[in-house]
Every structure is written in C-alpha cells, then in structure tokens.
Amino acid sequence: MRALFASAGMALLLALASGSGASAQEAPEWMKQTLPDQALKPHWDEYQAVMNPAGALDGKTKHLISLGVAAQIPCEYCVYAHTKAAKAAGATDAQIKEAIATAALVRFNSTMLNGSDGGREWSSRK
Fold it and tell me: How does pLDDT run across 16-28, given as a tens digit for each residue?
C-alpha cells in the first residue's frame, strides 16, 4: 500500500510540475480508491489548484508545509509522499528536518496553551 501512495504522490508531483490540466481520470489511484465518485473531480481540481507550484508559494515550500502537517496528523503515507516530493522539488535534508521541527514546536506550544487554559487569555486580547 505504501508503494501505491508513493507512486501516486510522485505521479501527482510530475503532473503538477508539468502544469498540465489533468482530468479526474488522471487523479492518483489513492484518490480514486478512497473518494466517492461525486467528490473525485472537485477534490482533484482543488488539489491541483492549491498544490500548483506556479502559485504564490513554490512547490518545495508547499510540500514542506504538507510534510509538517502530515507529521502531526500523523499520516505515514503523506509523510513519505511529501518527503519524496519535497526532495524532488529541491528540499535539503536540513530543510525537511526544520519543517518537521517547526510543526512539532507549534503543536507543543498549542498543547501547552490549551492544556493550561492559557489560550483563553490570549484569545481575549485584541
């Protein structure tokens, strides 16, 4: 299953990098296997629009963000695919480690604030 997600992730990266307007039939197999038919095209269209490397953020940055989130969810398939995609987009091992550490730090601080009810004090400030 991991190989399926990895190959789907790489296929997605290549499709986005080429700038082609792929149809829902060209969506990765994992999307076809997991989404209801009526949701496939809208989800694939949104995924392409957001992950398009020609947007305001480059592809490497988007995959580093995705990796940080995936590590926190946690989703081992997403971590694997976004690590491969980030490296393919030029991310270094140091950038990957820093993206994961940044996500971990935000999660830690959020846990501490929410657990100690400190979040209420901050949210009441404007």
Answer: 444 445 688 899 9
Residue 70 maps to which CATH number? Answer: 1.20.1290.10
Whether residue 31 contacts residue 38, with contact meaning beta carbons closer than 8 Å, is answered with no
Buried b or exposed e, range 13-41, using 16+ CB within 10 angstroms: bebbeeeeebebeebbebbeeebeeeebe
Angle 123-71-77 from CA coordinates, rounded to 5°: 140
How far is Cα 91 from Cα 30, in angstroms, rounded to an integer?
25
Residue 36 preceded by cis peptide, ω within 30: no
Neighbours of 48 (CB within 10 A): 18
User: Which domain range does residue 72 map to?
Assistant: 2-123
DSSP of 36-92, one letter per residue? -HHHHHHHHHHHHHHH-TTSSS-HHHHHHHHHHHHHHTT-HHHHHHHHHHHHHTT--
pTM: 0.74
For the chain, the domain total comes to 1
